[in-house]
């Protein structure tokens, strides 16, 4: 019974991976992340970032960084894309692509964004691109090892005796 289940799950996982790594879908995602960058509101840093988030049903949610005169209120492109998607009913994600104008370096998500991404799973793909659309890809869990996740809140705790 267990073997059957594992086999079944492995099959589902395999199909899922094939779907995720479909290169034309990923190329589209990367292209959309670069397009989203053009909407960045970054008058203070002049560091424009775009993101495109692929939801499990194929929907793509885009985002850009949105800065503010009260500097700490600025939000990153990745979190804009996540917030947009979740607020429209999406909670399962397959991949996110991130774009910037850096000529020779890939754009890598900041610590806050890594924490936001890992809230929705440790095993989905982050495509960190260069301006020429080449990329490096890593899992959310690789980008934030030893992370605090929703499971952490459900861990058994010691009792607090007063
Ligand atoms: Zn960020």
């Amino acid at each position: 019974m267990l073997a059957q289940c594992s086999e079944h799950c492995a099959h589902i996982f395999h199909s899922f991976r094939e779907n995720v790594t479909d290169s034309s879908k990923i190329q589209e995602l990367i292209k959309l992340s670069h397009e989203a960058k053009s909407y960045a509101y970054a008058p203070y840093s002049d560091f424009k970032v775009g993101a495109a988030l692929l939801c499990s049903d194929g929907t793509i949610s885009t985002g850009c960084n949105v800065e503010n005169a009260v500097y700490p209120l600025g939000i990153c492109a990745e979190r804009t894309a996540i917030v947009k998607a979740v607020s429209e009913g999406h909670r399962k994600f397959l991949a996110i692509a991130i774009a910037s104008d850096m000529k020779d370096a890939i754009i890598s998500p900041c610590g806050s964004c890594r924490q936001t991404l890992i809230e929705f799973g440790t095993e989905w793909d982050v495509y960190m691109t260069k301006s020429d659309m080449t990329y490096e890809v890593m899992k959310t869990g690789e980008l934030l090892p030893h992370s605090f996740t929703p499971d952490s809140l459900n861990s058994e705790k010691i009792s607090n005796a007063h």
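The chain has one domain: 22-151. Confidence is low (pLDDT under 50) at residues 1-19.
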